[in-house]
Amino acid sequence: MTVPVIQPFAALWKLITGILGLTGRLVAGIIGVVFIVLGAVLCITVIGAVAGVPLIIIGVLLVIRCLF
After folding, report:
1. How many CB atoms lie within 10 A of CB 20?
2. Which pTM was predicted?
3. How far is the C-alpha of 33 from the C-alpha of 68, rounded, in Å?
C-alpha cells in the first residue's frame, strides 16, 4: 500500500503505463508530443490553462516513459 500523498502520482503513472502497453512505444511518444502541443495551445488562454497544464504533464510523462 502506498502513502496517501503519493497515491495520485502512482495512479497517474499506472495510467501512463497502461496507455503505453496498449499503444506501443512509438504511438505513445507521438500521443505525448500531441498532448504537450495541445496543452501549450490551451495555456494561451487563462481558462484553458486549467486543462492545458495537466495535458502538458501527462504528455511529458508519456514521452519520458516512451524513451525509458
Report:
1. 19
2. 0.72
3. 15
